[in-house]
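A student in our group prepared the protein record below, which I am reviewing. Here is the record exactly as it was handed to me.
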Amino acid sequence: MTHRTAEHLLAPGDVLRRWWSERTRVQKWGFGALAFGALALLPLYTPPFLDTPGISFGGTMAQFAMVAIIAIGLNVVVGQAGLLDLGYVGFYAVGAYTVALLTSPDSPWNRMGEGGLFTEKWAWLACLPIAMAITALSGLILGTPTLRVRGDYLAIVTLGFGEIIRLLADNLAGVTNGPRGLNQVAYPRIGETDKLPNGVFSSGNSSGAANYGTWWFWLGLTLIVAILMLVGNLERSRVGRAWVAVREDEDAAEVMGVNAFRFKLWAFVIGAAIGGLSGALYAGQVQYVAPPTFNIINSMLFLCAVVLGGQGNKLGVIFGAFVIVYLPNRLLGVEFLGINLGDLKYLFFGLALVVLMIFRPQGLFPVRQQLLAYAKSARALLSRADPRKAAS
């Protein structure tokens, strides 16, 4: 079979992955900047075939940015380290409730108006690192006793953690306000004018393409870029290579001198902190936090984004997050035979997963297996030794 014929048999995701892997680092940065720039302009110049008639497209993209951050964090745990986490929504809840408890007037722990960074203008920004730190600590507390178990046992433990967080939020009425939730959560007060006295991030900025949803999307996109840079550097480091080794065969990694428990705990804590960041983003955008948001169904949807996009592939899970968010919003209000297709999102996701597991179990954009830190130097060494081997 010729090389050209073999390429024709590859799936689109494989072709794209191979093309991307052949680019230099400078070219990848250039294409990445163009892609994220075009993505940022989508709410302002939305193609008609992409628009969501039943809901603001800017709001849809803001929701996508939040889920994309969650997917990247969950990908560190599931895709990189190979830890099956079914309760990741618990970290999302911890981040959201941290911001809500510190800034909502319904909270007994409200710190708004105490001066310093907890003024109305800077309170949300001040809560961001606090939410990440507390969520990372919760990941450390959960991971230390539980990461010594594997597979299905770990999945059950994390599932229980997610439910415990939701039930605590539902029953600690004296702290979390119970099922009624916490209102008037702080958000960034930027761009305040006579027309928008509460700034561009407030729900009062609801008209035009550059509405508050678009501004939240731009903020989320900025955070995504920062997280991708951080996680990308980790992947190319000793930590990333240890994660891959543990994921592929934990016993073999231990024999080769890798402290599997320590690196799994690293992945758990980093993934938890990223999930907390997304929770803080959610609390500020919605300005309301209540227990029903953090149910097991949402946790499964987050995992679905990682599986659909391709476990271990950062850009792939972002695409998976886009599918998870965009599809229900695009079908919202669309009726077929008297049925609102937007209400059948779980049916569509279930069918998609079944088909994917049969024909493409690695996901749409599977991760390329290679030693990321030394791949280029190894190819250069091969090319000097034997040009024919490098070409193959």
